[in-house]
Amino acid sequence: MISLLGKAVGLNYDKARGYLLRKWGRLCCLVLGIKLEIKGDPPDPPFLLVSNHLSYVDVFILFSRLRCLFVAKSDVKKWPVIGFIIKTCGILFIDRHRKRDVPRVNNLISENINEDQGIILFPEGTTSPGFEILPFRTSLLEFPAAHNFPVSYAAISYALIVMDNNTVYEKVCWWGDTPFFVHFFELLKMKGFKAIIHFGNESVIEDDRKRLAEKLHQRVQYSFEPVIKKKDFLEQHDEFEPLSF
Which end of the chain is flanked by fewer CB atoms within 10 Å, N or C? Predict the structure, then answer.
């Protein structure tokens, strides 16, 4: 509805929304004390970009650098405050419990990539503590595979700025069953932290979505800087249950 009203008065809604979301992302980074370290060059629209997924913070830092929309799990709409903001800014939602929803979302991806914005996917389908890149789901890579559309990639990691008792994999990465508000409150108490985004220098083109997912996974894995070593994590946690997102 907002998009239609914007077009009626001659406003480029996608461009205006991208500008505002970028400002919002930068404001969130400032409030949370996030120092960004960028490696490589962010892609310009139109683009489709895949990234690993560690926390809701990923959304803030990517918004701050890219003119983009995200594909997110429909449950995110129920999140307090952030859920409302995400619903009103045109995020594309998918119901992962319904396989029939995948074609609809693939169509939305193709329709929303344009000269003013790109689309970002988290193909792991979940967050993690950051000791490895989880396997990539292939369902939402049907559009680029079917149309030989180049896919960009990025690897996200987090680190401390000031050494203290806070551990990044617990305080910034959001995994397991910690409620959102509890985790966010602990995040606000931190003295600041560093977010590293490593953008790939070349996009990937592949006409088979499984091969495309494999190549993208390899490249993200190669660029990824682990938040914690797998050995150290497993010594502290016998079981790992990632939070579906």
Answer: N
Which residue type is seen at 196? Answer: I
pLDDT tens by residue, 54-86 = 999 999 999 999 999 998 877 776 666 666 666
Q: Six-digit token pair at 231?
A: 């050995």
Question: Is the separation of the CB atoms in 225 and 196 below 8 Å?
Answer: yes
pLDDT of residue 215: 98
Q: Return phi, psi of residue 121, to 5°.
A: -115, 145
> How many other CB atoms are found less than 10 A from the CB of residue 56?
20
CATH of the domain at 205: 3.40.1130
Does a structural domain hold residue 243?
no
Q: Rounded to whole angstroms, what are the CA distances from 202 to 62, 117, 156, 179, 219? A: 18, 19, 17, 38, 10
Look at residues 92, 96, 225 and name the one whose alpha carbon lies nearest to residue 154.
225
Q: Assess if residue 241 is contained within a domain.
A: no
Give the number of other Cβ atoms within 10 Å of residue 148's Cβ.
9
Q: How far is CA 69 from CA 86, 157, 216, in A?
A: 10, 20, 20
The count of domains in the chain is: 1
Range of the domain at 21: 2-236
Residue 242 lies in a domain: no
Structure tokens at 235: 């010594």
Q: What is the pLDDT of residues 160-204, one digit of tens each?
A: 986 655 689 999 999 988 888 899 999 999 989 999 999 999 999
Does 244 fall in a domain? no
